[in-house]
Amino acid sequence: MTISDLGEFGLIEATAAGLPRGDRTIVGIGDDAAVLAAPDGRVVATTDLLIEGRHFRRDWSGPADIGAKAAAQNLADVAAMGAVPVALLVGFAAPGDLAVAWARDLVAGLAEECARAGATVAGGDTSGADTIVLAITALGDLGGRDPVTRSGARPGDVFAYAGVLGESAAGQALLEAGLTEPAALIAAHRRPAPRYPAGPEAAALGATAMIDVSDGLLADAGHLARASGVQIDIATALLPGHPGLAAAARVLGGGAMLDWVLTGGEDHALAATFPPDCALPPHWAVIGQVRAGQGVLVNGSKMTGRAGWKHFGG
Question: Which stretches of the chain score pLDDT less than 50?
Fold first, then answer.
């Protein structure tokens, strides 16, 4: 059966049936709009587009993985503001001949990642289109904390991250080469697993600025440095070793490991700046310093070439 056979409301009914209702959902799927409780009085909101062929490939990823990845990249943006993810609104457009089972599995992946983050799917919309497009809006709760923006880093702060770096880029390189091992890296590309609690944790620890590493460490550190009017110097000697990346580099016959870590995106690690006297938990790795100046340095020098993903032509 195709989604055209079901029609818009049949598709919504078929996919919504498997979605859990969140504790903060007052009015959920099936009305003109969702109504969510917002105890803080402020709502963190972010949105992203995923377009088939540009952001995902059906020959590389199954529908559940695509759904989970779509959720992850939006929920990570909420966490990067120091907020707790609460809910997603999902816009879904697809060709009419798409199998209903594919759409159901996509929604199952969305729901699985929402459950991992403690969030839910509260509503959305569907439409026909020539290719599959997902438009995801994520909502979050600050829990009484101030938001952590990109603009608060100060000279003297340390630059740290929580999560993983380079795994998704390595997985993509393996897929492009037609390889299936190391399987863990391919899985990381298909379904990243952001460390959502690290966002509110960073806020509580006194983070001065924070960003979700979606476009690449250098590119996103550059966004943070620009917004804060500072310079960030990343020391590659402080980057944790990763046997899996080294194995992938050997399989591919090249030394791309550092490039994956510095410029590969979509792992959705959280990168943040902290005061120098802040005692960070072990899962926050300090990898650089904030100084007066502009831009991003690597080992004290400016990098040339690509810094990360470019949304128009990259």
Answer: 308-314
